[in-house]
Amino acid sequence: MDWYPESDETLLYRGRVAFATGRAAKVAGMRWFRDEAGRDITPELGWPAGPAYTPRSEAAARTGRTLGGIGKGIVVIAAMAINAVSNANPDVSVGDGARSADPAHEVEDFPVLVAAPGTAARTLPYRLDPDRRPADTATDLAVTDRRVVVLGVSTKAGLTPAEVLWETPRTAIASVVKHAFGTHGGDLSLVFGDGSRARLDLLDGSRAAVQLTAELCPRRRVEMTELALQKMKNRAAPMKLEHWWEAVRQDDGTVVAQRVLVAPDGKRVRESRQHDVTKWIDAPVG
Q: Could you tell me the domains of the chain?
């Protein structure tokens, strides 16, 4: 038997999640857990042992960028080309973000937990860390109209039920940040009311990050101008189904939008393609 919400609540999203991973060359594949002063708090969390990461030197980072193998080189060149086009023409589709909005915490360092003692972020389960959880388990994020839940899920064949590892009322989350600079495009930070925060990677990518930012943080929603809406209509495939555009501001100030379709059975389906928006206004909150 799987996990299901209570009879009086509605499930809005469920998908695979983990603590995010650094993208920039110095911190690629790494993550840290810190307090507000930047001190490593890993020994205080009581979690299973994991790797002790050290940021690469500038020289090692440059070497990694240039000598990462033919396959990696092709990926890097392709990413550079996409980023160059995106920066030159903001009306093209965007990927996971071309530039860091916070180099101190995304390029030089990569804390995925910033939490003082006794704060909410410290209660998150260690199994969100791919370096610490068992190889045959994964974690899902479930968001309902009442709460946010982290589930432990077995990846082995069978009908092992999902386990509730952590949950919090939606009211405990003060803000949500969609990061433009992320490894898979799905980097999202939950900022709790006590100021602690956790940076997560949604494996569904930017589509899920836009959805949850719009759902959990209304003040990051935007409304496109008539001109922007017309551009979207011209660029997108013709659509007879009922639909609308979901758009949010990212941490670097840019806005991304995606089309939400309403299927004949009433189910909402979000397109996998996101677009950079140049003309928009803040949406009313509340």
A: 11-219 (2.30.29.30)
Average pLDDT, the chain: 87
Measured CA to CA, the distance from residue 22 to residue 239 in angstroms comes to 37
| 3-class SS string, the chain | CCCCCCCCCCEEEEEEEEECCCCCCCCCCCCEEECCCCCECHHHHCCCCCCCCCCCCHHHHHHHHHCCHHHHHHHHHHHHHHHHHHHHCCCCECCCCCCCCCHHHHCCCCEEEECCCCCHHHHCCHHHCCCCCCCCEEEEEEEECCEEEEEEEECCCCCCCCEEEEEEEHHHEEEEEECCCCCCCCEEEEEECCCCEEEEEECCCHHHHHHHHHHHCHHHEEEECHHHHHHHHHHCCCCCCCEEEEEEECCCCCEEEEEEEECCCCCEEECCCCEEECCEEECCCC
The single-letter code of the amino acid at 258 is Q
CA 102 to CA 85: how far, in whole Å?
A: 22
What's CA 56's distance to the chain center, in Å?
24
The count of other CB atoms within 10 Å of the CB of residue 278 is: 15
Residue 71 has pLDDT above 80, yes or no: no
The pLDDT tens digits for 226-273 are: 888 888 877 777 788 888 999 999 999 999 999 999 988 989 999 988
The pTM for the full model equals 0.85
Distances in Å between the Cα of 257 and the Cα atoms of 81, 111, 189, 254, 270 are: 22, 27, 19, 10, 11
From the list 171, 45, 190, the residue with the least C-alpha distance to 117 is: 45
> By mean pLDDT, which of 6-20, 66-80, 238-252, 260-274 is the weakest?
66-80
